[in-house]
Amino acid sequence: MPELPEVETIVTDLRPRLQGRKVLRAEVSDPLLVRFPPKGQFEARLPGRAIEAISRRGKYIVIGLEGRLTWLIHLRMTGRLLLALPPGEAHARARFDLAGGSVLWYCDLRRFGDMWAWFPGEDANLGGFLHLGPEPLSSDFSARWLCSVAATRRTAVKNLLLDQRVVAGLGNIYADEALFAAGIHPGTPSNSLSLRQYKALCQAVKDVLQAAIQGRGTTFKDYRNGLGAAGGYQHSLQVYGRRGQLCLCCKTPLAGCKIGGRSTVYCPHCQRR
DNA sequence: CCGTAGACCTGTGTGC
DNA sequence: TGCACACAGGTCTACG
Fold this sequence. Notes:
The chain is α+β, with helices and mostly antiparallel strands. It has helices at residues 4-18, 39-45, 143-150, 157-162, 172-182, 195-214; strands at residues 23-28, 34-36, 51-57, 60-65, 69-74, 79-82, 92-98, 103-108, 114-118, 255-259, 262-266. The strands form 3 sheets. A 5-stranded mixed β-sheet has the order 2-9-5-4-3, covered by helices on one side. Strands 1-7-8-6 form a 4-stranded antiparallel β-sheet. A hairpin with a 3-residue loop joins strand 4 and strand 5 (69-74). The longest helix is centred in the last third of the chain and has 20 residues, at 195-214. It is globular and about 55 Å long. The chain binds a DNA duplex (16 and 16 nucleotides) through helix 5.
């Protein structure tokens, strides 16, 4: 579900409400949720520690706890971190009681989400976390970097944007939006684009993500921020979810296709190969 | 190395 | 109304 702007919004909302709070109790009801250490140990590690920092890296939420414990959360498709359980919510998978009386809930309809809690030096399998590429809003993510990666790959440029080792945080929505903004066909072979085009794409990625963060993320269906509110960027989407509707730029009907197994929407006129 | 299909889950929407 | 099927914002593995 959430891509970079949604995770950024969640982290921003939760930070002032979590920072400095001590975890009193951790209770995980879904055995699929915890990846490291085993569930019982995980539940025993958090209590008694204050939350020192909460930040985002790619689509991961990174929480630093007292005593050098790092708590890592990936929401995957439908995960939510909430400070209040909405009435009728049937998918709570874990609860974390905090000093002061608040409770941080983890809810997840499809149960794809993951959590880890590890100390320095532990051999925890952190999935893709250790191999994340540059943050798209940092200067490390540049046209030069994209070009150097693209040179060796023939895969569709959209697949490049979705590869978290190439750039951390883009998903299906913002990949389509950035390609539209850059005027690039999502199926173009990566190694056939020019440096000029990669400059446009790099800038488009930054612009689209900035605007989406400003808009507090995109709520297509499931996404909610840390306080349970929907985002606002769905009203600004140019192509995602608009297959068959008219391009807002040139009035051509938007086309759809599959790339890398993901549904893809683009304008056949504004994004010619 | 590359690309695709299937897997992990549960729910919703669509068409017959 | 019931049922089957496609599809969903993410990622990993197996396989050709």
